[in-house]
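retry 2 of 3: previous attempt timed out while embedding guanosine-5',3'-tetraphosphate. Reduced batch size to 1 and resubmitted. Inputs unchanged:
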Amino acid sequence: MANQLVEEVKSRRTFAIISHPDAGKTTLTEKLLLFGGAIRDAGTVKGKKTGKFATSDWMEIEKQRGISVTSSVMQFQYNDFRINILDTPGHQDFSEDTYRTLMAVDSAVMIIDSAKGIEEQTLKLFKVCRMRGIPIFTFINKLDRQGREPLELLEEIEEVLDIETYPMNWPIGMGKEFYGIYDRHYHRIELFRTDLEHRFLTLDQNGEVMEDHPIKQTSLYSQALEEVLLLDEAGDEFSVEKLNEGKMTPVFFGSALTAFGVQTFLDTYLQFAPPPQPRNSDQGEIDPASKGFSGFIFKIQANMNPAHRDRIAFLRICSGEFERGMSVTLSRTGKQFKLTQSTQFLADDRSTVNRAVSGDIIGIYDTGTYQIGDTIAEGKKIIQYEKLPQFTPELFAKVTAKNVMKQKSFHKGIHQLVQEGAVQLFKTYRMEDYILGAVGQLQFDVFVHRMKNEYNSDVIMESMGSKIARWLDSEEVDEGLSSQRSLLVKDRFDNPVFLFENEFALRWFTDKNPSVPLKDPMEIQ
Ligand code: G4P
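retry 2 succeeded.
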């Protein structure tokens, strides 16, 4: 039995795809699910944005925006691996939950549009992965279109993200003249627009195509050979150690839309991506294959339908195995209870889960018991996994109660929602005005809706726009430094924070006050 658990845990690969909107995350996810046989038709993942979702009873915001619990986690089997892909919602759905999801994965896949390079949201998500030091695999997408020079893209990744790159394969041309990829790892050429039977060409010892093939006559082939030679000689060597520490990213080229290079990517990814790793807790490191179920909650999704107030808490299993009905303890409160209502996330639908192991994600129905970051462990065990980090909010809004007679429910609602991790709360120094902080507008929309529906409190939100938040890294606070353009506030633990109007205001402030230490919790160390 113990051995079976070890094997099962080893087969798990739990990752998230990080990218900027439109880079091709949905398309790639769909192709991966197709290879895993988890879906039959392309369009299924996207389809959830409309068709299937319309019948669900989740609320308007969710319907409009297509946030679906079903696509939050997608699990499927591929060869001997059980793969969990965690969705990182972008567009208007970007929120702290997107960041927190990255706390629950063991590796990340970064998709870059070959015509655009590193974009804003990719950078933000990358920073969170970097904080955790998890392996990051890069897929440069849309090679079937004219994009930027591959060497230039690698340079940008190395410079902007401060990470070494190792191209696992190299494109031969691009756009209309995209012939395929030179696969350094599998030592073969994979041809684009070619049927499966003739897709691969083997290479000889010198790294050249063995057989007589027309591609050998093309200048793009010769150019690719030259570039690969350059990479062999002058590029970094592949290092699994560096990959595991998040210091080197293997780079793949391909085209998600045409499913080109995707399976090769998946096979190589599975070979190198780590299975679940030990996690730090207040009881020391806990091995994922150790007996005794434990896990932590990284996301709580409210059911926005007023008729169903229940929520779903997403739990990442970190050790042992989960069985439905098992008795567990919530360490924050010491409360013991049975986990009976749970759900697992399969690519095609939600279904009741009876059994899951380390690396898997389960959804637990929540009637207000859980908070983000909570640890649950089997039996009477009390352990607490490391606290989730603080994320730097970027959007701010003043919030007041519409009805001054309803202050009690207003305060109760805010405090509970803040504790739950829905939004961040700040207060001004003198007047103690409430300011909410978020990383995405969705968090404010959800907040307003839940205040009304769950706490019967109508709120007035007065947008302050985007600000740059920097925590004061010192005990001493000089309230005199507060101004309109560098507003001094307190976070919910009374730590002082400056909210700067823009980059210019931040620079001006640091130039004027070089001895005031400021800190961005998400800054790459
Ligand atoms: P996202 O989830 O990261 O936001 O991106 P998504 O997969 O939705 O892809 C964004 C657009 O890029 C889509 O086109 C998609 O078809 C296209 N795309 C994705 N991968 C490739 C690729 O390898 N090559 C090319 N040429 N295009 C790609 P769209 O027109 O915006 O949407 P749709 O109408 O096709 O759904």
